[in-house]
Write a structure and sequence with these properties.
The complex is a heterodimer. Chain A is an alpha/beta fold. Chain A has helices at about 35-40, 50-65, 85-100, 110-115; strands spanning about 1-5, 10-15, 20, 25-30, 70-75, 100-105, 125, 130-135, 135-140, 150, 155-160, 165-175, 180, 190-195, 200-205, 210. Chain A has a single domain, classed as Purple Acid Phosphatase, chain A, domain 2 (4-Layer Sandwich). Helix content of chain A is about 20%, strand content about 35%. Chain A is globular. Chain B folds into four domains: about 1-210, 3-Layer(aba) Sandwich (Rossmann fold), CATH 3.40.50; about 220-380, 3-Layer(aba) Sandwich (Rossmann fold), CATH 3.40.50; about 485-540, Ribosomal Protein L25, Chain P, CATH 2.40.240; about 590-680 and about 745-805, no CATH class. Chain B is built from 30 helices and 26 strands. In chain B, strand 24 (about 640-645) and strand 25 (about 650) form a beta hairpin. Chain B is of the alpha/beta class. The chains are: A alpha/beta, B alpha/beta. Chains A and B meet through helix 1 and strand 11 of A and helix 19, helix 26 and helix 30 of B.
């Protein structure tokens, strides 16, 4: 875990690829992409859904451990329309019922299907527009807004550590003056390579540790 | 008798051309008239096309007339198809035969492809992938029902690859439809001819082998500078030799300059232009990452004589006949005898004339390696091409193709597949596991009853989903391809591709060398690198991974022989090599061929152990890890490893007890258990799984213009690999990836042979006070072996600490 200050707010960057807004008790995650395996299955690619279940139980543990009351998903909860099968719907509805936490979803580009077809069994609060709480704005797309600090996802940022003999790519948080881009929470998606420059701070996560570069 | 009639028919056409059939051609004609199948092995340019095609044509002409497709001519390179079509068309036009010749490759328009099915030509030229696509057409049975002969050109190119396995499966399918189908392969010289022939015709036939023994003379020159100081002691670029190469270049001679990597080609082209700016318009750069249209322009320019010099890589090993190539220059060792012969053969494609090739050493010790090629030519030694076995990825792709085509029954397809050499020892259990995976997703998807890809309908396995059919047909093909990023000028013009890893080192505004041009990176967006022509000196030249050529097996033995013989000074390089071995002799020792030299030196870095088995870098990598593991049982220390094609280096902080360096260290027993300690097969397997997943249809790469619609289906093979490893660890494709690590990366069988040799070898230990000609290259170009057993945290620490230095 790595604690930093953003707009005078205490923020913990968690190795599980999520962030905690300490004083408000809000957990922030991005890009969960549930139903990705089901999407692939519908196209004839035989991949089991195990990663989704593991991701969800990881998130549930995090919520319980940190005893947060609110969790904000900044977009791309689902992967695609064809991935929202009856089974996936059921699994996620059950999951929502077991966690003791309010869930907000700011729609991302992959969530288009949910705009009109949000399953009634899913007990969560959808947001068609950016969600603003205090000094922060929660948006799927990374964007710079005046007078507010944006929490976003979408890019699935990752960083490649490199030496002469070795290279290793790890998911990362990218933080600049007015914007955080969170790593994708899903363990079953690829990423976008981020390059270092003076305008941003990069924190990679190994799964058990967050390291500032 | 029809036999004589056919012979007469062909002889007459030969006479019209002013030719006499060669003995091997006559032999082939007779064998084909006798309804045999087999393999014809002759050097490039000796006339093998007419050895196989003409008698097939005569067969067709004098037999009971049939309609539709009768001769299928398969070539590994679609670029060859056009020239072949001309060669095949000629006798048909001359003899006014009523046959049509067409070609079908990935470049054929869909209109032409449809026409081919509706009214098929008598003779069709195609590639293995296009054949596989045709077989996945429900009308396939009609198209191929009257087929008489299949001719497979350049079989040596396909034999040791998954493309070859795909072709074996397709040919078995054709044979099944047509019991009397004749199959003929054409190959350049290889060592395991009998095996190659058997794989070509299938394990259910006895092949006839027709071989022309006289090899084409190769006029081999080794360019050696006058003094040893003019050569580098290590390195692969070899730019120090530029003046000697320039001496041999002239706009009057058309010349191909072969390099071993694309990066090296970029650097050499740049260096030549810098030295001779006046050659800017007559010199071109040709490699596989340069845009196809650009390459075709260069090939045309070469044919027309506008372009006089081409710096190229293996992209020009095969392919287009640029009739007038006067000479070939090879920078560095070609690493295999077959490649040397192939490249030399590009100079003067006229039969009976010796091919001229000049080899340029890139560092001092390489002279010995180049001399090993001289020895190989003298003693007619050449490599084997080992055919692949049990590639489940290719099998699964083929099974889907069959299901999309006419559908299949389990028993019939199993029997058919068993006739191929690649799957002759496939068990019913393995076949059923493949089938289960394709039908229901295998064990991992037991909980998902909705999943289906193959359906069982009236006893036949078929595919019904239109999308699956479409995607499968787009995905057929087994050539490996890494994720590449297109390079485009800001006006949209395509220049070629680079690897994403290379791009990751660049920031916008950086200059780099690509395709012989200096480019400035403008931006990297939506997986396209946009560039402008730059003016500044480039920081770096584009690098492509995996471009190192594998070191051939017989080469090591030849090299040890060269070093063990008295070096004749008839050739200019002999004197230079003598100087080098004298220095080696003075400060260490020159090993006899039955000896293994171990040098021990101490530097500030620690104790260096240098071993020189001369078996190639890949083997040395496995060997170094194995030795480090075995030494660590008795000697607790950190080991740093490095290797090159000649030897390996192990660095420790404390001196190793010399009595540990005994034959027992090389004992081939327990190799299989020891490798589990030295190899991280899980991590390495990811790399091999990428290609496997693509072939088996687990990842879909999309196609131009269609990428958006399939974006949701994009998933990296690594993610699938991890999911399978966790939820379906017995998956056949996973097991195949592990198997490929052991066989292809570690080269298990060959490593075992090497260990056997080393246990027999006499170990000579030399304590040296300084680095020797043998050890210096290893020391300089140390690419230290990544120890794959390190934990994530250790790797991160190491990477971070390397930044501080």
């Amino acid at each position: 875990m790595m604690e930093i200050l953003i707009n005078d707010q205490k923020i913990q960057l968690l190795p599980e690829k999520a962030a905690l807004w300490v004083d408000e008790g809000i957990l922030i995650v991005a890009d969960i992409h549930i139903g990705k395996a089901a999407t692939l299955q519908s196209a004839g690619i035989p991949v089991p859904e195990g990663a989704m279940q593991q991701d969800l139980s990881k998130l549930a543990n995090l919520i319980a451990q940190l005893a947060v009351e609110r969790c904000i998903i900044v977009g791309d909860l689902i992967h695609s329309k064809s991935g929202v099968t009856t089974l996936v719907q059921q699994i996620f509805a059950d999951w929502l019922a077991t966690i003791k936490c309010k869930v907000d979803l700011v729609f991302g580009n992959h969530d288009r299907f949910l705009i009109k077809h949000l399953p009634t069994s899913w007990n969560l609060q959808p947001h068609h527009q950016n969600l603003v709480i205090g000094p922060f704005c929660f948006s799927h797309f990374p964007e710079i807004l005046e007078d507010t600090f944006v929490w976003s996802g979408h890019l699935h940022p990752q960083f490649t550590l490199q030496s002469r003999n070795d290279r290793l790519t790890l998911p990362c948080f990218q933080i600049s003056a007015q914007l955080v881009i969170l790593p994708a929470f899903s363990s079953f998606v690829g990423g976008t390579n981020i390059y270092k420059d003076s305008s941003k701070q990069i924190y990679v996560t190994t799964g058990s540790e967050v390291i500032c570069l | 008798m029809t036999h004589d009639k056919k012979l007469h028919f062909l002889n007459e056409w030969f006479q019209q051309q002013g030719w006499m059939p060669l003995p091997f051609q006559l032999e082939a004609w007779n064998a084909i008239f006798a309804q045999a199948s087999g393999l014809i092995s002759v050097p490039t340019g000796a006339g093998k096309t007419y050895a196989a095609f003409l008698p097939a044509l005569a067969e067709m002409h004098f037999s009971q007339p049939r309609s539709g497709l009768q001769i299928l001519y398969i070539t590994p390179l679609k670029a060859l198809a056009r020239d072949l079509e001309k060669a095949i068309q000629k006798p048909i036009t001359d003899l006014k035969l009523p046959y049509r010749v067409e070609r079908r490759t990935g470049d054929t328009s869909s209109y032409r492809k449809q026409k081919l099915v509706k009214s098929s030509p008598e003779i069709l030229l195609t590639t293995p992938e296009s054949l596989s696509i045709m077989l996945s057409d429900p009308k396939a049975q009609d198209l191929f029902k009257n087929l008489r002969t299949v001719i497979i050109d350049e079989w040596h190119e396909l034999l040791a690859s998954k493309r070859g396995v795909l072709l074996e499966l397709c040919v078995a399918r054709l044979k099944n439809q047509n019991a009397h189908l004749q199959i003929w392969g054409l190959t350049a010289t290889i060592a395991n001819l009998m095996e190659a022939a058997q794989v070509c015709v299938g394990s259910d036939r006895s092949p006839v082998i027709i071989q022309k023994h006289v090899a084409r003379a190769i006029d081999l020159e080794i360019i050696a500078p006058a003094a040893i100081d003019q050569l580098a002691w290590s390195g692969q670029l070899g730019l120090k030799m530029l003046p000697f190469v320039l001496e041999r270049l002239s706009p009057l001679n058309s010349t191909l300059i072969f390099t071993n990597t694309r990066n090296q080609a970029e650097r050499w082209a740049q260096a030549i232009i810098q030295a001779k700016p006046e050659w800017k318009d007559i010199l071109a750069l040709h490699h596989s990452s340069i845009d196809k249209n650009e390459r075709e322009k260069i090939e045309e320019g070469m044919k027309e004589g506008m372009i006089r010099m081409v710096v190229c890589t293996s992209s020009l090993d095969l392919g287009i006949d640029f009739s007038p190539v006067d000479r070939v220059i090879q920078i560095g060792s070609p690493k295999s005898i077959a490649r040397l012969m192939q490249r030399a053969g590009r100079a003067s494609h006229q039969p009976f004339m010796p091919c001229k090739i000049a080899l340029v050493p890139t560092h001092a010790l390489e002279i010995a390696e180049l001399k090993a090629f001289r020895l190989a030519l003298k003693e007619h030694i050449i490599e084997k091409r080992i055919p692949l076995k049990k590639c489940f990825d290719v099998l699964m792709q083929h099974m889907i193709s069959c299901a999309i085509g006419e559908g299949f029954t389990k028993e019939a397809l199993f029997a058919e597949i068993k006739t191929t050499a690649a799957f002759s020892d496939l068990t019913l259990e393995e076949f059923e596991a493949c089938l289960l995976f394709l039908v229901s997703g295998g064990k991992a998807l037991q909980a998902y009853p909705d999943y289906k890809k193959l359906l069982l309908e009236e006893g036949r396995y078929v595919v019904k989903d239109r999308q699956i059919i479409l995607r499968h047909r787009m995905n057929i093909g087994t050539i490996a391809s890494d994720p590449h990023v297109p390079v485009k000028l800001t006006n949209g013009k395509n220049l070629g591709v680079v690897e994403e890893n290379f791009l990751a080192q660049l920031s916008p505004g950086d200059h780099f060398l690509f395709g012989g041009r200096i480019l400035k990176l403008i931006q990297f967006r939506d997986l396209v690198a946009y560039v402008r022509i730059g003016k500044k000196a480039p920081k770096i030249a584009a690098v492509w991974q995996g471009s190192r050529l594998p070191y051939s097996m017989p080469l090591g033995a030849l090299l040890r022989q060269v070093l063990d013989q008295k070096i004749d000074e008839n050739h200019p390089e002999g004197k230079l090599l003598n100087e080098i071995v004298n220095i080696q002799q003075k400060f260490s020792l020159l090993p006899h061929r039955d000896e293994l030299l171990i040098e021990i030196t101490k530097t500030r870095e620690g104790w260096h152990l240098f071993l020189f088995p001369f078996e190639g870098k890949a083997i040395h990598q496995g060997l170094a890890s194995l030795l480090a593991f075995r030494l660590s049982q008795f000697h607790s220390d950190t080991f740093t490893l490095s290797c090159n094609d000649y030897g390996l280096e192990i660095i420790t902080s404390k001196p190793i007890d010399p009595t540990l360096l005994n034959p027992h260290l090389f004992n081939p027993a327990h190799l299989d258990t020891d490798i589990t300690h030295i190899l991280n097969t899980y991590e390495l397997g990811k790399g091999f799984f990428r290609n496997i997943a693509r072939i088996a249809g687990l990842i879909f790469q999309g196609y131009p213009g269609q990428q958006k619609t399939h974006r949701q289906l994009q998933v990296s093979s690594t993610l699938i690999y991890e999911v399978f490893s966790q939820y379906d660890p017995e998956n056949l494709l996973l097991l195949q990836a592990r198997h490929e690590v052991i066989e292809n990366y570690l080269e298990f069988n060959r490593l075992q042979e090497v260990l056997k040799r080393l246990t027999q070898a006499k170990i000579v230990i030399k304590h040296t006070t300084r680095l020797t000609p043998f050890s210096l290259p290893l020391f300089i170009e140390r690419v230290s072996g990544k120890l794959s057993t390190e934990t994530l945290a250790e790797r991160i620490e190491k990477i971070k600490s390397s930044w501080k230095n």
